[in-house]
Write a structure and sequence with these properties.
The complex is a heterodimer of chains A (about 100) and B (about 220). With about 100 residues, chain A is mainly beta. Helices cover about 0% and strands about 45% of the residues of chain A. Chain A has a 3-stranded antiparallel sheet with strand order 3-8-5, with no helix packed on it. Chain A has a 3-stranded antiparallel sheet with strand order 4-7-6, with no helix packed on it. Chain B has no helices and 17 strands. At the A-B interface, strand 1, strand 3, strand 5 and strand 8 of A face strand 2, strand 6, strand 10 and strand 14 of B.
């Protein structure tokens, strides 16, 4: 190890090394079916992020999530035979 | 950064800071089902003992299929699967409470734990944007340098069609995007049957794919 931080657990397993990329959770929240929304996260426009929705209900459509400047926005989806679902919105930074 | 700690990796990427939280390993296990008739058997992954609705990461064995069908908060996450599927659940680190007398704990500005050396952390190795269509019904994703990772497929697309069967029956076939493991470093994103139902006679509808691009996370702990 030339420099940096290496963290081990009590069994000496390395849980964090200097080449790892662990995620940091910027936001998690619930979006209701058939509703759109957004949240401002100052500085998020400069971060490498991944944002997505996990649908909570079967045979329904989860929200679409995207980044717009310092805002994370989400929009519901609904189609013939496929109504909108409640979703959990996640925003991760990984740099 | 006005206070706290910031730790970067060798690529100058932030590993830990005192502003945001992390996601930590909480539990793991596997499910198995071997009925090859579609729709595949629906099985539940227990999440009732986890402090918050977790992010569940899946790894079908080579030759196995899985698709997330629904989540019942504080109860089960349901998947349809054929074969063997490993999983792990992770949740926000500050929700965990494990007694320990050693290690490093970093708090965020809001007083919650941002990092704790007792936990294993979710690592995202890669993300892939995938859009299926009526002309591209599956897509193979290779991750050459990442062996046997787990996956999270978000915003799954849907496919359905209605077919007239015989003289008086119409059937609706409803598919959702899921995973089929090809090898240790290749996974196929494809549509798997989620339900079928009879409709009043006379209905037909062409094969239609719905949904915006999906995100496939390639992860591990």
């Amino acid at each position: 190890m030339s420099y940096g931080l290496r963290v081990r657990d009590s069994n000496s397993n390395i849980i964090l090394s200097m080449t790892d990329r662990i995620t940091r959770l910027l936001y998690v929240g619930t979006a209701q079916a058939f509703t759109n929304g957004q949240i401002e996260i100052p500085g998020v426009s400069y971060l490498q992020t991944v944002q997505f929705a996990i649908g909570l209900e079967g045979q329904k459509a989860a929200h679409t999530v995207w980044k717009d400047g310092n805002y994370i926005k989400w929009e519901y989806r609904a189609y013939s035979f496929i109504p909108s679902s409640d979703s959990i919105i996640y925003v991760f930074a990984y740099t | 950064m006005g206070f706290g700690i910031e730790i970067k990796n060798s690529n100058n990427e932030i590993l830990i800071d005192s502003k945001y939280r992390n996601m930590s390993y909480y539990s793991s296990g596997y499910v198995e089902a071997y009925n090859s008739d579609q729709p595949f058997t629906e099985v539940g992954i227990p999440i009732s003992n986890i402090p918050t609705t977790p992010l569940v990461c899946l790894r079908p064995s080579v030759g196995s299929y899985c698709v997330v069908t629904r989540i019942v908060s504080n109860s089960y996450l349901y998947i349809r699967c054929y074969g063997h599927v490993d999983y792990f659940c992770c949740c926000e680190s500050y929700k965990l409470d494990i007694e320990s007398s050693y290690g490093m704990r970093i708090f965020s500005e809001d007083g919650n734990v941002a990092f704790d050396s007792r936990f294993s952390y979710l690592k995202i190795y890669a993300t892939e944007i995938i859009q299926l269509s009526t002309s591209t019904l599956y897509m193979d994703i290779s991750h050459e340098n990442i062996e046997n990772p787990f996956y999270v497929l978000s915003n799954p697309q849907h496919l359905f069609y209605i077919q007239k069967i015989g003289i008086i029956e119409s059937w609706l076939f409803f598919y959702i995007a899921g995973l089929y493991r090809i090898s240790s470093n290749t996974v196929r994103v494809l549509f798997l049957l989620d339900r079928q139902a009879t409709l009043p006679p006379g209905y037909t509808a062409p094969l239609t794919v719905y949904g915006t691009p999906m995100t496939l996370l390639i992860v591990n702990i």
